[in-house]
Structures are given as C-alpha cells and as structure tokens.
Amino acid sequence: MTLLLRLLITGVAIWLAASWVDGIEIISPEDTTTSKLIVIAVVTVIFTIVNALVKPLVKLLSLPLVVLTLGLFLLVINALMLWLTSKITETTDYQLHVNGFWAAVWGGIIISIVNWVLGVLVPDND
Hints:
mainly alpha; Phage holin family protein; 6% strand; 6 helices; Phage_holin_4_2; membrane; transmembrane helix
C-alpha cells in the first residue's frame, strides 16, 4: 500500500513539474485526460525504477562532488535522473519530454520538494 501511495505522490510531482516548468511536457498519443493519466503512470513507474537502480550508483560515484559542493550537486543528479527518464520514455508513444538542462534542474527541484512535502504527510512504515 505504501508503494502505491509513493507512486501516486511521484506522479503528482511529475505532473506539477510538467505544468509549472516550460521545458517539460507530457506527450500522449491522444489528447484526452485518460491518455495523459496513462502517460503520467508510465513515466512515474520508469522514473521510480531509474531512481531505484541508477541514482544510488551515480550518488556513490559523485560523492566527492557532493561533498565539495555541500550537497548542491544532488540537484544536478536529480536533473540527470529526470533527463534519463525523458530519454527512456521518448522511445515510446508515452513521453515525458525535457527540453534542456535548466528545465531538468527546475523539474528535479519541484519533484524533490513535492515528494518531500507529501512524504511528510504520508506515514512511512519504517
């Protein structure tokens, strides 16, 4: 149940990033609400998989840069994970398109903040 809530929170965060940042858009085969929700669901699952598999390795390898920049390099890592998700989804009909590095940075910031705020409201079983 907690996984579904976390996926829902991530989906809301991606939707907010796509609606607030000019360089991020959700592209669906049809222009209906149901199609957009399917795209958000697919992108959310891919983003979660990327964050679970790739992000820890990237954080470990870039640990000296994270320490040197006092954690600000984590914003770049979040942007890279969003960009990687964009590149993976651009091979399908259900796309999250990130246009440029700064759009990815702002999208990563928005997704991190929304995940943090909504994560505080959803109790964790730890």
